[in-house]
Amino acid sequence: MIKKIIKSYDYSLIAVYVFLCLFGLVMIYSGSMVMAVERFGYESDHFYKKQLVNIIIGFGAFTFAAWFPYKAFQVGKILKTLMVTIVGLLLAVHVIGVEINNAKSWINIGVMQVQPSEFAKLAIIIYLGAVYAKKQSYIDSFNKGVIPPLAFLGFICFLVFLEPDFGTAAIIFTIGFLVIFCSGISFKTFSKLAGLGIAFLVVCSPFIYLARDYIFTKERMSRIEAYLSPFKYAQGEGYQLVNSYLAIGSGGVQGLGLGQSVQKLGYLPEPHTDFIMSVIAEELGVFGVTFVIVGLSYIVLRGIYIGVKCKDPFGTMLAIGISSMIGLQAFINLGGVSGLIPITGVPLPFISYGGSSLLVLSLSMGLLVNVSMFVKYEKKYKIKKENSQSSSNNINNNKIYNF
C-alpha cells in the first residue's frame, strides 16, 4: 500500500518546488549580502542563514501536507479548528501586532514574526473547497449554498483590510472568487453573484467616499503616480521602479554574472524580497528570468491540470485554488517589478525572502502534491483492479462455455 502511494507522487512537481526554493536561497544571498552589512550591520550571510532555516521548516511542512490525507480537512472539527485559529490570529494582529511599513500585519512570537494574512490565503481555499464540496446538491441555492461561505470570505477580507493591507485583502478575495467559480456553481448563479457584488459596491460608495482619506492616502496615491510616471518621480516613489528598470536593462541576455549586480549596492531598497527578480535579471539575464517563470508556470499549469483530472470536488477546488494563489502572486510581483502594474509589496513565490510566505507556499505545495497523488493512485490502481476483475470474469465465462 505504502509503496503504491510513494510511486503515485508527482515527482516532477516536487522537483520544481525544491529547485525554485534552492535557487531563491542562492539569489537571496547574492541580493542581500551587501545590504545586510551596510544597512543593518549584520554579517553578509545573515538573511541567507535565516532563509535556510525557513526552507528547512518549509520542507517539513511540505512533507506533512503531502502525507496527511487532504480529505481530512473536510472533517467538521478539523475545519472549524483551522478557521477559528485563523480568525483568532487576524483579530490578535490588531491587539498585539507589530507595525511594519505602516501596516500592523505581523505577530512577534519570539523566534520569528508571523503574518496571519498569509495563512488566511490557504485557509480560505481549504474552507471554501470543503464547504462547497458538501453543498454540491444545493450549490445554486443563494440562501444555503452561496451566501454563507461568501459572507465568511468577506469577513476575512475585512479583517485584513483593517490592518490596513488592501493588497492582501484583494488577493484573498480574488482567490476565493476563483474557488467559487470552479466549485460547480452554474454560470447563471455566478452572474447573479457578480451582479450582487457590483450592487454592494454601489451601496458602499458613499462610505468609501467618506473614508477616502483613510483608503486613498498620500502614500498610496503617490504609488499610482510613480507607476504612471516613474522617471518624473525618480527621486521619490518612482525610485524603486526606475532602478528596477536599470537592473533589468543592464542584465541583457546573459547577465553580468552571479553576484555582480550593481543595483543591489544600495539602489534597490528591497533586493532580496519584492525586487529579487530585478537582481536575477541583472545577474543572470534572460536565462535566469526564464528559469523562474518556466518553473512557476509549470506549477500553476500542472496544478490546474490536476484539478481538472480530480473527480473529488474538494480536491479540484484545492488544486485550482492553490494554483491560482501562486499564479496571482507571481503575476503581481513580476508586474510590479516590470512596471506593468503598480508596486504592491507582494513577494515572488518560492524565491523572495520571507518565513510566513514560504511556509504557506510549502504547505500549499504539499496539499497540491497530495491531491495529485490521490488522482494518480485512483486512476492507476483502480484501472488495474478493474482489469483484473474483467480477466477473472472472462476466465469464469470460458469455463462455463467449455463445460
UniProtKB/TrEMBL annotation:
Its EC number is 2.4.99.28. Keywords: Cell shape, Glycosyltransferase, Membrane, Peptidoglycan synthesis, Transferase, Transmembrane, Transmembrane helix. PROSITE patterns: FTSW_RODA_SPOVE. The chain crosses the membrane at residues 12-32, 52-70, 82-100, 106-133, 145-162, 168-186, 193-211, 275-301, 313-332, 352-375. It comes from the Bacteria. Peptidoglycan polymerase that is essential for cell division. This is Probable peptidoglycan glycosyltransferase FtsW.
